[in-house]
Amino acid sequence: TLFANAQRLGIKIIAPVLCDIHDFKGPRCHRVLFDAPCSGWGVVGKNSDLRWSKSKKDSLNLAETQGRLLRHAATLVNPGGVLVYSTCTIIRDENDQVVEEFLLERRDFTIDSAAKTFPKELVNERGFVKTYPDFENLDGGFCVRLKKRLLRLAQVESVYVPGFYDAETRKPVIDGVPEKIIARHTLKLQPEYYPSRPIVPLTEITHDRVTVEIMRGCPQRCRFCQASRIYRPVRLRSIDDIKKQVMANLKATGHDEVGLLSLSTSDYPDIDRLTSTLVMALEPKKIALSLPSLRPG
């Protein structure tokens, strides 16, 4: 069994669950292996009674079941994750046909060819792995690696998924994604966009401080500066919002320094009042205030 093999190999991250796949309530996963129930025609040498106990009709019935289970297994895969479909049969109806029908229905999945990891003799032009008993005394079998594409995410304006576009022509290689990526900007820097309980590293880091964005964009518009073009327009956070985030972050982390971030912190319109307000709150606690993003001159 899979669990026994995991124990033999010293793998301890597998938690076996016995249930019908339709009743499985676990979280989505980045890697899903679906070892499908099949006719077993790839291991007929070990089970000679298959020649008399199985028929063509059995394979067709199994193919329907395999397709249904594969579609359900696909719901357990995270965007960008991988689904492996495998059988121990050499019957095309249970292998190629099941996968091709699945791909017609689920356009967010694509074949991730096994040519990079398997001998070329075992991988066909579609990227499927096929083994036969007459090759190196292997059992007959089939497997394919399917990758869940970020199709729904790519349909959001401004989101670019490189795998959906030709690297040279920059044209889409699949349907359903925008031909041109349009930049999108948030109009107001809402307090809920920022974490109130940031993660604290286990070791000392270079930027070992609370960092708080106070402004996005730069009013100077220097022609040599790419960032000032990319992050337009200028958007400001209120002093009250900044102070609330600073105090919440300090309470949650225990840092002894606060850094005010933007493309050019000194160009914040009310920088004097902001720094005075924060100094009054931080000085009694012996917490330093830094302005690391300053424009020279």
UniProtKB/TrEMBL annotation:
Protein name per its UniProtKB record: SAM-dependent MTase RsmB/NOP-type domain-containing protein
Native organism: marine sediment metagenome
SUPFAM superfamilies, A to Z: Radical SAM enzymes, S-adenosyl-L-methionine-dependent methyltransferases
Annotated PANTHER family: RADICAL SAM DOMAIN PROTEIN, SLL1084 PROTEIN
Higher taxonomy: unclassified sequences, metagenomes, ecological metagenomes
Alphabetized UniProt keyword annotations: Methyltransferase, RNA-binding, S-adenosyl-L-methionine, Transferase
Pfam families xref list: Methyltr_RsmB-F, Radical_SAM
InterPro entries: MeTrfase_RsmB-F_NOP2_cat, MeTrfase_RsmB-F_NOP2_dom, RCMT, rSAM, rSAM_sf, SAM-dependent_MTases_sf
Any GO BP annotation: RNA methylation
Domain SAM-dependent MTase RsmB/NOP-type: 1-149
A GO MF label: RNA methyltransferase activity
